[in-house]
Amino acid sequence: MSSRKLSNSSSEDMIDEKKRKRMISNRESAKRSRMKREQHVKDLNDQIMYFKNKRSEMIQEINEIGQLYAGIESENRLLRLESEELRKRLESLDIVSRYMCEANEPSMEILQDPLLKPWQPSFQSQPIMTSAGIFQI
Q1: What HEC string does 16-60 produce?
Q2: Cα separations (Å) of 80 from 85, 86, 91, 130?
Q3: Residue 112 CB partners (closer than 8 Å, separation 6+)
Q4: Is the Cβ–Cβ distance between 123 and 114 less than 8 Å?
Q5: In degrees to the nearest 10, what's the CA dihedral of 107, 111, 115, 120?
Q6: How far is it, in rounded angstroms, from Cα 70 to Cα 78?
Q7: Is the pLDDT of residue 25 over 70?
Q8: How many CB atoms sit inside 10 A of residue 90's CB?
Q9: Distance (Å, rounded) from C-alpha 69 to C-alpha 73?
Q10: For the segment 29-77, what is each residue's pLDDT rounded down to a tens digit?
């Protein structure tokens, strides 16, 4: 019996040793798994913070662009009004200009009047005769 008992005891010791090694291995594996999961959660949290910051930056940029757009749209509206006002003024000036040209357009009779164009002799000029004795000293 004692040899059987030794054999049993030795076999149980071996089983206990295997259980203990397996338990240690399982603990280490669980620890690695927890650490890996913690690292994964940390990485996810880092990504969340990164994307939150990016989102805030983009919202700020969108708001700035929206303000610029509103300013440009307002300026554009003013320029359109000014353009329309200038177009109307130009039309008015064109009307006045045409009226003035028609009112000031001389008739053909007036253009032929020799007194209006003294630089163009329209009649036969005659030589001026002077006597030599007028200019004596």
Answers
A1: HHHHHHHHHHHHHHHHHHHHHHHHHHHHHHHHHHHHHHHHHHHHH
A2: 9, 10, 16, 74
A3: 122
A4: yes
A5: 180
A6: 12
A7: yes
A8: 10
A9: 6
A10: 999 999 999 999 999 999 999 999 999 999 999 999 999 999 999 999 9
